[in-house]
Design goal:
The complex is a heterodimer of chains A (844) and B (133). Chain A has 844 residues and is mainly β. Chain A is built from 10 helices and 52 strands. In chain A, 11% of the residues lie in helices and 35% in strands. In chain A, the strands form 11 sheets. Chain A has a 10-stranded mixed sheet, sandwiched between helices. In chain A, strands 1, 26, 27, 29, 30 and 31 form a 6-stranded antiparallel sheet that branches. In chain A, strands 42, 44, 45, 47, 50 and 52 form a 6-stranded antiparallel sheet that branches. Chain B has 133 residues and is mainly β. Chain B contains 1 helix and 8 strands. Classes of the chains: A mainly beta (844), B mainly beta (133).
Chain lengths: 844, 133
């Protein structure tokens, strides 16, 4: 959706020059680092860095993009030191930034610094600069070519460009490594330098505007030298690690100036043809594009801005933030009803338009990618003994087949164990190899990951029904047994490395059915299955009439909405009946098919609208699957937010991922399972309804009591049919609840009525002891999902909406969040309106 | 009333072409002693059965390989357990609810997750006599 914008001249803005945002000190800071990293500052300001209450450094800085400023400290950092920063312009001084306490990096990385990544790869012959990522800020990083050091940076950034000298030759073995406090990281993956497939591409430019002092040049070959001219005047030559290059200029660019850039690699080959652009006049400077804002935020995130621009943020026409970079910190908290205006400026040039933002109750921010944790090289081997067959990936000393297990990690702890099981497919294809990408990702963050070859019960040998699922369970258990023997062996490379008390399972298709069954049937000493991920699973037992009740483990299921095989999305049945150990979560993925999560399953075999590409399927499994196993098996709380839609992972199509979730530590107001029907809620309180019809129905297939045939789960719920606008369904609470800092969760789906409805929704209200009801609209918390047009049936697939209590507090001054007596569903849309299905009204 | 294109998606469609079940050429029925499948680590849910009705079918082509499982519907009984037979495209299905099988019940052939409209009537019906019709 395009941003709402208004002309700047239509509003009278109060732009107090003394108000500028504080910068941000990047957390964590580690002992032994000679630098502090500061981001989100205004271009060309002075940064003051305070250490334990004393300003120890004041330095001028350049531009905050692409990766902040590294400010050298008088001495190496020491654990326990307290650091913060502020910025100064000629007319203003910001408040202090966040306070960061220096810590020993071994707290976060007990097995040593993470493994550097040569990024971008590959490295080309004659390249003069290489990017290295996955570094700890402040570490020393270096590059070797054929075992000779060719470049080094002390006190590096997390993604650091390293100039190399001499330039790379052809077919050199290039490696990166780092150390902090003298503690060395593993070597990076090996890159061998290769010749560039000349000719070099034409360089491009992002739009440049009058007054710009920072420009972005694109299409740069890895390691190339880039030369820039402005109006024919040479600005110099800079090495670039590849991709794009942000170039800071000594003076503002005038309108209509011509920029020209070329790149070279080997001197014997011609440079690229000159890429050119013209500086656009001030009047063309656009407004920045802004990510949705949540009530309670103290910052805004920019989706697009002009490089080097200063961004100003106004609430109700009064400036409350001025900064630069992708995040602008604010000097006040955003409240319900605020109108936020955002503009950008370059020098004296101001964007003619302002972006208008209205804060939402819930707009989960994009966070890190849970699949990106990269600590160790990865070893692997195939196994085929004792009736068990498959592959295993594990954290190793070096990459390769049967390389030794990572010694340092082995000294610290035994590592969690994950077993993958594919589904039914031609036995001529090695289906078990289809999740190698996921195995590598988990192994490099410290898991031993097995993928079981189930081909002995696949294809022509598969047989049918529940027994085929049992056969898969048997193969899974047989592989676990084999790895128990490896673990117990004195001389196996996996000897004494695996913690079977932290075992997770992931199964796909019939394999997904099997991993739900396996915990019920496994009887191996010391094995505890704590996490089960069922990917597009079948439910043969359910089909045969047996309710499956997953319990005693954390459960995740992934349901491809465009599945053309398990088109009924049987995982929804498992989800509905799963009793969460700590939590359960369900991902309903639009434009996804059954097969593309497995690299050996080449056909789409989806139905309905065009599906996403294969890599997009994989990225979703990687991000959410790694979040799941990290949280459950590594006790990593940093990934829990992804599983309950509090934050979104970067690096995948989150716009197509729709979650239902539940945690054990919650208070159920109504799950529609109690006796008494719709007349009482789960707290045995009498409900009431007016202006609508609310009834309870089984939410499952082939049940004569169902509302219609669109329900594919296995639970009971409520369907509300609108009779007139503003009908109410009231669910009383007893005793009176203090909902301060709580959330109300409810699962909801539109029951498809034959056409896409233009404004499906409702309002959730909280009623206090004085009878005041505060409402929040479903659109303010993400909205009700538009039903997916699967050709076999448009399903009523319920997803969870989170309503934060602060939103109710801010919507009505008279409302008392400390004394809530009832929860109200108000059907505030005009009729006709499609029916809405609800379940699991909870206080969290 | 007009309909959007979206509406067309709500029609029942057949399975993907590659998932079409091949027609049954022959079908024979007999009562047999049943040997449950044996596993290394678990006991099969069929281990309680000593006897079964064996329904041997030969199809025109191999049964497609997919997640869903093929089923013989005999009256109200769903028969999904099968093993590959020795002949080409031969499959031996086993029914255990023997008392629920009624003579002359039609035999219907489909995937376990087929919408009812997609199930295939066959020319066969159940008989407790030794030979199939």
């Amino acid at each position: 959706m395009a941003d709402e914008q208004i002309p700047r001249k239509q509003v009278e803005l109060r732009d107090d020059p003394k108000i500028i945002s504080p910068p941000m000190v990047v957390d964590p800071l580690y002992s032994c680092s000679p630098v502090v990293k500061v981001i989100l500052f205004i271009p060309l300001v002075t940064i003051d860095v305070e250490l334990n209450g004393v300003i120890v450094k004041s330095v001028g800085v350049g531009f905050p993009d692409p990766n902040g400023a590294l400010i050298s400290m008088p001495s190496l950092l020491v654990a326990g030191q307290k650091i913060r920063a502020r910025q100064r312009t000629a007319s203003a001084t910001s408040g202090w930034s966040n306070l960061v306490i220096v810590k020993n990096f071994l707290v976060d990385y007990p097995a040593g610094p993470p493994r550097p990544v040569i990024n971008p790869a590959p490295v080309f012959e004659c390249g003069c600069r290489t990017g290295v990522s996955n570094l700890l800020v402040g570490a020393n990083a270096w590059i070797t070519a054929n075992a000779v050091e060719v470049g080094k940076v002390s006190g590096c950034n997390d993604h650091q460009g390293i100039n190399v000298s001499p330039d790379y030759g052809i077919h050199q073995d290039v490696l990166a490594q780092s150390d902090l406090c003298g503690d060395k990281s593993p070597l990076s993956a090996l890159e061998q330098s290769i010749g560039f497939p000349y000719p070099l591409p034409l360089l491009g430019f992002d739009a440049v505007y009058e007054g710009s002092q920072q420009i972005r040049i694109t299409n740069v070959a890895n390691g190339a030298r880039v030369n820039l001219k402005v109006n024919g005047v040479n600005q110099g030559t800079s090495g670039c690690w590849g991709g794009s290059l942000l170039w800071g200029l000594g003076s503002p660019l005038p309108a209509m100036a011509t920029l020209e850039a070329t790149q070279t690699l080997c001197s014997g080959n011609p440079p690229s043809p000159p890429g050119t652009t013209t500086v656009q006049p001030c009047g063309n400077l656009p407004a920045p594009s802004v990510y949705p804002v949540q009530i309670g935020d103290d910052h805004i995130v920019l989706i697009n801005h002009v490089w080097g621009a200063t961004v100003k943020v106004y609430i109700n026409n009064v400036k409350i933030g001025q900064g630069s970079g992708t995040v602008i910190t604010l000097t006040q908290i955003i409240k319900a009803g605020d109108t936020i205006l955002v503009g950008q400026e370059i020098g004296t040039c101001k964007s003619a338009m302002l972006t208008v933002v209205h804060p939402l109750c819930v707009a989960p921010p994009i966070s890190f990618n849970p699949a990106s944790l990269n600590l160790f090289p990865v070893g692997s081997f195939e196994y085929n003994q004792s009736g068990a067959k498959g592959s295993v990936y594990y954290p190793a000393q070096t990459d390769g087949v049967s390389t030794p297990f990572n010694k340092r990690l082995a000294k610290i702890k035994k590592v969690p164990f994950v077993v993958l099981a594919h589904g039914n497919h031609s036995e001529s294809d090695p289906s078990y190899q289809g999740y190698d990408y996921f195995q590598v990702q988990l192994a490099r963050m410290g898991f031993v990951v097995v993928s079981v070859d189930c081909n002995s019960v696949n294809g022509s040998q598969s047989g049918g029904g529940v027994v085929n699922i049992e056969a898969r369970v048997d193969l899974i258990i047989q592989s676990i047994k084999l790895f128990q023997t490896f673990n117990a062996s004195a001389n196996h490379l996996l000897s004494n490395t695996i913690d079977f008390s932290q075992t997770g399972l992931m199964g796909h298709s019939r394999g997904g059915d099997a991993v739900v069954m396996a915990p019920e049937m496994i009887a191996l000493a010391d094995v505890s299955i704590n996490a089960v991920l069922a990917l597009a699973p079948t439910d043969f037992r359910g089909w045969a009439g047996t309710n499956v009740n997953p319990k005693k483990f954390q459960f995740m299921t992934i349901l491809p909405a465009g599945d053309g095989d398990v088109w009924e999305n049987n995982g929804a049945r498992f989800y509905d009946r799963s009793a969460p150990g700590k939590f359960k979560t369900q991902l309903y993925i639009y434009y996804a098919n059954h097969n593309y999560f497995n690299r050996q399953w080449v056909l789409d075999e989806g139905m309905g609208p065009a599906r996403m590409q294969r890599f997009e399927h994989e990225e979703i499994l990687s991000a959410y699957g790694c979040a799941f196993f990290r949280n459950v098996l590594q006790n990593d709380n940093s990934t829990f937010g992804f599983l309950v839609n509090r934050v979104l992972p970067s690096g995948c199509r989150v716009d197509n991922v729709h979650l239902a979730f539940q945690i054990k530590k919650s208070f159920t107001v109504d799950d529609h399972e109690q006796a008494g029907g719709i007349a009482t809620n789960s707290m045995a309180q009498p409900t009431s309804q007016i202006g609508l019809t609310a009834k309870e129905f089984p939410f499952r297939q082939n049940d004569p009591g169902s509302f219609d045939s669109s329900f594919f789960g296995n639970t009971n719920g409520m369907v509300i049919t609108y009779e007139k606008q503003n009908g109410n369904f009231v669910s009383p609470l007893k005793p009176v609840q203090n909902l301060k800092d709580k959330e109300i969760w409810i699962r909801v789906a539109e029951v498809f009525a034959g056409n896409i409805h233009p404004d499906t929704g409702f309002q959730l209200g909280l009623r206090d002891a004085n009878g005041t009801t505060a409402f929040v609209d479903s659109n303010a918390v993400g909205g009700i999902l538009i039903p997916y047009p699967h050709p076999n049936r448009v399903k009523s697939m319920l997803n969870t909406l989170r309503f934060r209590s602060t939103c109710f507090e801010q919507s009505s001054k008279r409302f008392n969040i400390m004394q809530v007596t009832a929860i109200v569903i108000r059907c505030n849309r005009p009729v006709p309106h499609p029916p809405l299905a609800f379940d699991d009204l909870q206080i969290v | 009333m007009d309909a959007t294109e979206f509406n067309a998606y709500n029609q029942h469609h057949g399975p993907l072409v590659q998932f079409e079940l091949p027609p049954i050429k022959t079908l024979t029925i007999k009562r047999v002693k049943f040997t449950p499948p044996k596993f290394k680590n678990i006991q099969s849910s069929l281990s309680k059965y000593k006897e079964a009705i064996e329904i041997t079918i030969v199809t025109e082509k191999p049964i497609p390989v997919r997640a869903a499982t093929p089923v013989l519907y005999i009256g109200k009984v769903k028969v999904s357990y099968y093993v590959p037979g020795k002949a080409t495209n031969e499959y031996r299905f086993y029914a255990f609810e023997i008392d629920q099988l009624k003579d002359n019940d039609p035999i219907i052939w489909g995937w376990n997750n087929d919408p009812v409209v997609n199930l295939n009537q066959t020319k066969f019906s159940y008989t407790s006599k030794k030979k199939g019709k």
